[in-house]
Amino acid sequence: MAVDLRMFQRNEQVPATMSSADVQHQRFSPYADNGGSIAAIAGEDYAIIAGDTRLSAGFNIYTRKQTKLFQLTPHTVFGSTGCWCDVLTFVKMMEAKLRMYSYEHNKTMTTEAISQLVSVMLYHKRFFPYYITNVVCGLDENGKGVIYSYDPVGHRDSVICSGTGSASTLIQPLLDNQAARKNIADPEEAKKKLSKEEAINLIRDAFNSATERSIQCGDSISMSIVTKKGIESLEFALRKD
After folding, report:
1. Which of 99, 119, 203, 205 suits 175 as a labelling partner, its CA being 20 to 30 A distant?
2. Which residues face 232 on adjacent strands?
3. Is 96 helix (H, G, I), strand (E, B) or coil?
């Protein structure tokens, strides 16, 4: 018996009575954008990292008290935002690797080594990347503040300041001008170094400004200040609407 192979072919044409706008495709997206922003500044003897505590999706707020900062060692703090399930997975895997390193070498991993570890872990997932933005903040072996920022597949950049996350376009220009001293008209003013107190106030101002323009940024700021004495944690209120 002859078989008409055309009966097994899919009809990809849209019926004349149905517009292309009426066609529904059932597709699964593994990613979600849960918002959040990170700001960090490195100084001569300090490093400061801060993040807002709002966890949201679109117009829905899941919680107002979720910190985006994770203390990895007595001299290193990790900040991450984006798809929150990816953040938790990434941090859990990184903490496991840090414990293994501590058991095998009987010492704590340095900030430089942690920054390289983050880069390798991101690159390892380059074909199905983590949907997160990351900042490593801490002190180097000489006690100087360092900040490392990353692209989605692990490219690492050592910077003076960094603003990432949903409000990065609002925070980064201010940090570039006031912390990195870029695009300042007065040459003498451009040579000025920020003190720790000035850096704290600058980050607060940056977040206060960002919350006026971004619905995914708000509620409060969780801040970690890394110095030779250890890590100090502070919290400041932001607008909650």
Report:
1. 119
2. 225
3. helix
